[in-house]
Amino acid sequence: MLTATDVKNKVKKYILKETLSDVNQIDDDTLIFETGLLDSMGLLFLIEHLKEEFGVETQDEELVVEHFESIKNIVAFVESKL
């Protein structure tokens, strides 16, 4: 079973890879949309990645920025679906 740390590490690794960011630029509370790391297309790719990596299905009503605005929030969202 995945731990919160496992989920966090996988999500952070994905975001770092997709945004070509340095590991020191992003922490668990970095606002990834506000800082321009991801945009709406990036969100779609992130949601697809969460589905492939963790089997997380995202419903239309769950597509709110609060669930995806930081690594901490993404991890909480994924954990709520596991």
TrEMBL record:
Instruction: Enumerate the spans annotated as Carrier domain.
Output: 2-82
The cross-references to InterPro entries, in alphabetical order and at most eight, read: ACP-like_sf (IPR036736), PP-bd_ACP (IPR009081)
Q: Which Gene3D superfamilies match?
A: ACP-like
Q: Which Pfam families match?
A: PP-binding
| Record's protein name | Acyl carrier protein
The species this protein belongs to is Lentiprolixibacter aurantiacus
